[in-house]
Amino acid sequence: MFEQGKGENRMTYEEALRHYRSAVAAADADAFVAPLAGADDPEALLWAAWQTVTSFAAEAKSDQELARLSALVAAVQGQELSGVRVWELRVFTDLPVLGAQLREEWNGGRPQAEWTALNSFAARLTAAGTHDALLLGLWTISSALETFEGPAENLPAAVEWFTQAGDRLAGAAIHGRTYAARLGELAAQAGVTEPGFSVPRWAFWRSRLQTLSREGFKAIKRYDARIVSGGKK
């Protein structure tokens, strides 16, 4: 728990969460930004803010809700607070703490529907150029397509990456964007050697998706044509 400031803007962590639930529900970028102006501890406020955003993303029930939330983040990003920095990043231009909060969500524990919605949200931010979460997408896709355990749990979430940010994934593969990321055993058996994005890994994903589609996975059947073309409509 923390207390923000020593005057009128004094705010506990619980108060910050309540404030941000109201601001996010209303999609009010000004209300989202306001507590950070002159904050003694902007980092703590940002943890409350982005925790609220990821919670709303997980709870989203429609594309419209996720699109509205993504638009809010983009609007917030456009409101720089001069001189306010966290981790040497500009608030809000560089969206400090958002990436760390998303990374916390990738530790697991969400039911499938919430996990799928979170991945869709991160993919939308990536596609829009608001926040680059490609590494998180790589982890999700690897879990869905490259392991012996089967794709059922992670497959709908992986499909969201192909449908929402397929162009970004394909571009990362073409340019060989590297990460210190895990490489699943099925991909390794197929001859993929690079743990980041690569053309051979992209080709393996396409092949695996086509195989799963033939096996009757509905999440792929619906989007198969777009997936195998790299996100092109």
Calculate the terminal CA-CA distance, rounded to whole Å.
47 Å
- Order of helices and strands, N to C? HHHHEEHHHHHHH
* Rg calculated over all Cα atoms: 19 Å
The proportion of residues in beta strands is under 5%
Percent range of helical residues: 55-70%
Largest sheet: 2 strands, antiparallel
| Gross geometry | elongated
How many helical stretches?
A: 11
| Overall tally of structural domains | 2
Strand ordering within the main sheet: 1-2
- The beta-strand count equals 2
pLDDT below 50 for ≥5 consecutive residues: which ranges? 1-8
Describe this structure in words.
InterPro entries: OpdG, Oxopyrrolidines_Biosynth-assoc. The chain is an all-alpha fold. The protein folds into 2 domains: 1-105; 133-233, no CATH class. 60% of the residues lie in helices and 2% in strands. It has 11 helices and 2 strands. The protein has helices at residues 13-25, 29-33, 42-59, 63-77, 98-105, 112-128, 134-145, 155-174, 185-189, 199-214, 218-228, and strands at 85-86, 89-90. The chain has a two-stranded antiparallel sheet. A hairpin with a 2-residue loop joins β1 (85-86) and β2 (89-90). α4 (63-77) packs across α6 and α8 (155-174) runs parallel beside α11.
